[in-house]
Specification:
By secondary structure, this protein is α+β, with helices and mostly antiparallel strands. Helices cover 23% and strands 31% of the residues. It has four helices and eight strands. Strands 1, 2, 3, 4, 5, 6, 7 and 8 form an eight-stranded mixed sheet that branches. A hairpin with a 4-residue loop joins strand 2 and strand 3. The longest helix has 13 residues. The protein starts with a helix and ends with a helix. The model has no long low-confidence stretch (mean pLDDT 90).
């Protein structure tokens, strides 16, 4: 599954892998947010993409690691500051790395390219107020694991999440 990403890393330097203008691809990161008490996940509705996603986005120069990107994006997009990373003993390791092709963007005239998306799982004790980034996002919802598993974008990661949250 990671062959494309590994090949990409062999042929691109440290600056290129986070450059939004690198249309071979670039690193993105995000985090599923799980409210333990209610057993619900937070999804945000992305205006441009017109779909529900977990909070996340592009790596920036200020981010030392993909985990830093995920934490920053979660905070920027939801206002949630206090959340715990599931994998604290190996915090740099995501629960998943997804490679997906971003189609040509007619509006902004951006060529198709790849996102190498580092996915993390964060936990909060209970559902909290969410202050979404109104520039990028339109709304949000909290959903259970069964509803999350019906989303076409999360096929491979659902079993991993189920195994982690049952522990």
């Amino acid at each position: 599954r990671q062959a494309k990403f590994i090949e990409y890393l062999k042929t691109h330097n440290e600056n290129e892998i986070i450059d939004w203008n690198n249309f071979d691809g670039h690193i993105t990161a995000g985090g599923f947010i799980y409210a333990k008490q209610e057993k619900k996940f937070l999804l945000v509705y992305h205006k441009m993409l017109q779909m529900y996603l977990y909070p996340g986005g592009h790596s920036e120069v200020v981010d030392s690691t993909p985990l830093d990107t995920a934490k920053r994006e979660v905070k920027e997009e939801t206002g949630i500051i206090e959340c715990t990373l599931i994998n604290e003993n190996e915090e740099i390791v995501p629960i998943d790395i997804d490679t997906h092709k971003i189609p040509y963007d007619e509006k902004r005239k951006l060529p198709e390219h790849y996102h190498f998306d580092f996915r993390y799982l964060f936990v909060i004790e209970k559902i909290t107020d969410v202050n979404i980034d109104a520039e990028e996002l339109q709304k949000y919802e909290w959903i259970g694991i069964e509803e999350l598993s019906k989303h076409q974008n999360y096929g491979r990661i659902i079993e991993k999440i189920k195994n982690i949250i049952k522990e």
